[in-house]
Design a protein that fits this description.
Blueprint (H helix, E strand, L loop, with lengths): L3 E9 L5 E8 L6 E8 L10 H11 L3 E6 L18 H13 L4 E10 L1 H10 L6 E7 L5 H4 L2 E2 L2 E2 L1 H9 L13 H6 L15 H8 L5 H4 L14 E6 L5 H12 L8 E6 L9 E2 L2 E2 L8 H14 L10 E5 L4 E5 L7 E9 L12 E3 L8 E6 L36 E4 L7 E5 L2 E8 L5 E9 L5 E10 L18 E6 L3 E5 L4 E7 L25 E6 L7 E7 L5
Parallel strand pairs: 3-4, 3-5, 5-6, 6-9, 9-10, 10-13
Antiparallel strand pairs: 1-2, 2-4, 7-8, 11-12, 13-14, 15-16, 15-27, 17-26, 18-25, 19-24, 20-23, 20-26, 20-27, 21-22, 21-25
Helix pairs in contact: 2-3
């Protein structure tokens, strides 16, 4: 088809900086609804990319499409930054205002995109620009300290790598380094320099070890109360931002005026949405979803009056294991019941060679298990909710059996299931911990053990013990004292099928997903020394450690 296009159109911002965009529309003489995508990854389209096919489809549907470089990137003016936290909301609102004033815009503007391109939609929508009719953000974080640069206070190394690749000026650059060696090196503070990158932003992310004003400027959930346009959220169980996405849904829908205007679609995906093959599993043809098509169908409702939002379920999630979609009016699902599973052992739960048990009714056994952990040789991440870091790291569901042989990991496994056991929501481990270290990480992972012995990870949680009194302070442990910790895992939805087992792993490392805890009680970012320690998990009548699962008790659609 023929269409009008114009490249490198400069759009003025309120401070005089001009941002570059490429504009395409069916014909210059018409007036169209507009779909805007703002990106730090180069607005120019690769001729072989699916984005070209999607853009042509949008032009055939009568949309004007605009791709814009964010401030400081590629052809846009402004000082480069890893993330333009302070500017993205205003820049997005200014871009929408400019678009609405153009003769080829019919006054209706939608935004689209995922990851950074989803984050910028939220900040722009919070400015409430006139003309914005809907947003379709996917896979983004909503809090810097708890789910973006850090996970509950612990630096996420893949996101630091992302920052390093985007810290060197206007163009994204991937340093040619041995990432494994770089990530293992100490002190962590020098990670960017060891890649040949000088970045104060990366250093600031690492230096601010407690939550506060610095981190609130890197992601503020309060902006969600300012969003008043319809929203379609998309995410995946194995995405690094999985839990924050459904938390965003909950926060948006707590206001009555947003009821029915916010929808969420969650598949078995990692950070790249829509594929049936994720990690080491194939979830079947039903898991394959064209996210661009889905976003367009939602935009059609609000920009063209085509379709009815009431015909969309508020929540549509993929139940792994059974590999099917289910629908709900709310999240968490109404038909889930918190269900306890207790863990115990006889001679010890260390590694897959131990006899750790996960039980619905606690039986007789030992009162505790312990493991000796040395962060010099960390337990390794195998897949999971991990940003792939340019393909260098595997994400998604993967067999954990190789790591489970380690004796510095406790493993508790249920009996073979005789019927399907479904969970949907956020598991929590309530655990009683004692340590010889003043500070450590307790990492818990939930797995689905297949009849052939594969132990497939579902979700993971991390708890840095210095934050047990809040993220705004660091309080060390006293050796010999028993502490009760509540450790939330990431959200998931899985049907454990008959002849499968439920498995719980407990360790003190998941590298390189999380930066190592040196276990000295010092600054894990600047120090170079490590300390080995013994960690004791109590599970007696006095200290009834348990896993709390969100069990689906009734039928699901």
């Amino acid at each position: 088809m023929k269409f009008y296009q114009k490249y490198d159109v400069k759009v003025p911002m309120r401070d005089g900086i001009k941002l570059s965009c490429d504009i395409r529309m069916p014909d210059q003489s018409g007036s169209y609804p507009v779909i805007l995508l703002r990106t730090p990854y180069n607005k120019q389209l690769n001729p072989d990319s699916p984005a070209v096919h999607n853009m042509l489809h949008l032009l055939e549907k009568g949309y004007c499409t605009i791709h814009m470089d964010v401030r400081g990137k590629y052809e846009s003016e402004g000082i480069p930054a890893v993330i333009q936290f302070d500017q993205e909301g205003r820049d997005g609102a200014d871009a929408i205002k400019w678009i609405k004033e153009q003769p080829w815009c019919n006054g209706k503007i939608a935004t689209t995109g995922a990851s950074y391109c989803g984050f910028v939609q939220m900040t722009a929508a919070a400015e409430q620009p006139d003309g914005l009719v809907t947003i379709t953000p996917g896979v983004f974080g909503n809090d810097g300290f708890s789910n973006t640069a850090r996970k509950d206070g612990v630096p996420q190394l893949p996101l630091l790598i992302w920052g390093i690749c985007n810290a060197s000026g206007r163009v994204s650059k991937v340093p040619l380094v041995d990432w494994q060696s770089v990530m293992m090196s100490v002190p962590l503070m020098e990670i960017a320099n060891k890649c040949g990158v000088e970045s104060q932003a990366i250093k600031d992310w690492l230096l601010h070890n407690t939550d506060g004003d610095f981190w609130h400027r890197k992601g503020d959930k309060q902006i969600l109360d300012k969003i008043n346009v319809p929203v379609l959220l998309t995410g995946g169980w194995y995405d690094v931002y999985s839990t924050s996405m459904l938390e965003t849904f909950q926060l948006l829908t707590r206001r009555k005026e947003m009821h029915g205007k916010v929808k969420v679609v969650f598949g078995p995906w990692a950070h790249s949405l829509g594929s049936r093959e994720v990690g080491e599993l194939d979830f079947g043809i039903d898991a394959e979803v064209d996210i661009n098509w889905l976003n367009t169908e939602w935009i059609n409702i609000w920009a063209k009056g085509e379709g009815n939002p009431d015909e969309w379920p508020n929540v549509r999630i993929f139940m792994m294991g059974e590999n099917r979609w289910i629908e709900s009016d709310c999240w968490p699902l109404e038909n889930t019941v918190p269900t306890d599973m207790f863990f115990t052992s006889d001679s010890g739960a260390n590694g897959s060679g131990g006899d750790g048990r996960l039980e619905f009714l606690k039986s007789a056994g030992s009162d505790l298990d312990y493991f000796d952990y040395d962060p010099v040789t960390p337990v390794m991440s195998v897949g999971g909710n991990i940003l792939s870091a340019g393909g260098a790291l595997k994400s998604g569901p993967c067999n954990q059996a190789h790591e489970e042989v380690r004796e510095d990991m406790l493993i508790y496994t249920s009996e073979e299931l005789t019927e399907t056991f479904r969970i949907a929501g956020q598991p929590v481990m309530e655990v009683y911990v004692e340590s010889t270290a003043p500070d450590t990480d307790i990492i818990v992972r939930l797995c689905d053990v297949y009849p052939d012995g594969r132990s497939i990870n579902l979700c993971c949680g991390i708890y840095r013990t210095r934050y047990r009194e809040g993220f705004d302070k660091e309080v060390m442990m006293t050796p010999g004292h028993v502490y009760k910790l509540n450790i939330p895992l990431d959200i998931t939805a899985n049907a454990f099928l008959p002849k499968h087992h439920i498995r719980l792993e407990i360790s003190s490392g998941s590298f390189p997903l999380f930066a190592r805890n040196h276990q000295t009680g010092g600054d894990n970012v600047t120090e170079t020394e490590f300390a080995a320690a013994r960690h004791t998990i109590h599970h007696s009548a006095q200290y009834p450690s348990r896993l709390i699962l969100p069990v689906v008790k009734t039928g699901v659609n």
